[in-house]
Specification:
Structural class: alpha+beta
Number of helices: 6
Largest sheet: 5 strands, mixed
Order of helices and strands: HHEHHEEHEEEHE
Shape: globular
Low-confidence stretches: none
Distance between the termini: 74 Å
Mean pLDDT: 93
Helix content: 55-70%
Strand content: 15-25%
Strand order of the largest sheet: 2-3-1-6-7
Length: about 190
């Protein structure tokens, strides 16, 4: 019966669409629309394995907004959410071809590959400087934010160890003035 045939096709198409929406919701941070923690860790591990096999330089970076609690306390969580969205936009602008994610709160992660370590560092620093000089409109005011980053380059360590080392470098950057990049192994 043609009517039943078309009905079944429509139902299957709708099911495929719903599955795609559910997968996107499961892998995406609802606020920033960047990858979420689980998705980033899965995809980053696969990508790093590929980079190592291809002998392609890469950088794993953890970043945190400086004094973000002060933004939430002074302007409210709605403004804090807007700041997170703006940071996500800058991440897409600077690292569109890489993996970017919001890990939670004001913590983000980046995995990029490129020509060499200097090129990758420059990409991170361009992003950091671009955030630092930008302002975000809040009513009649404009607020500024900055980010601190911890990075690790071309490591052959286990992925969880790389994340830990990048995170330690991030804390070093925050403890030593903020609005800077600290490189794992160069922070001792």
């Amino acid at each position: 019966c043609p009517e039943e045939f078309y009905c079944r096709i429509s139902q299957n198409i709708e099911n495929l669409y719903n599955i795609t929406r559910i997968q996107k919701a499961a892998n995406t941070d609802y606020l920033t629309e960047l990858a979420n923690r689980r998705s980033f860790f899965h995809d980053a591990q696969l990508s790093i394995t590929g980079f190592i096999k291809q002998n392609k330089p890469y950088c794993l970076a953890m970043l945190d907004l400086d004094h973000f609690k002060k933004v939430n306390d002074s302007y409210g969580h709605e403004v804090g959410d807007q700041v997170l969205k703006v940071v996500a936009l800058y991440m897409r602008k600077h690292f569109g071809s890489g993996l970017t994610a919001r890990l939670g709160g004001e913590e983000f992660a980046i995995l990029i590959s490129g020509l060499d370590e200097d090129h990758l560092y420059t990409k991170l620093d361009d992003f950091r400087r671009d955030i630092a000089v930008s302002t975000i409109p809040v009513g009649d005011e404009h607020i500024s934010v900055s980010v601190s980053l911890g990075a690790i380059f071309d490591s052959r360590e286990d992925f969880s160890k790389q994340v830990s080392e990048a995170d330690n470098a991030l804390y070093f950057a925050k403890e030593n003035g903020r609005n800077q990049i600290a490189v794992a192994g160069a922070t001792e």
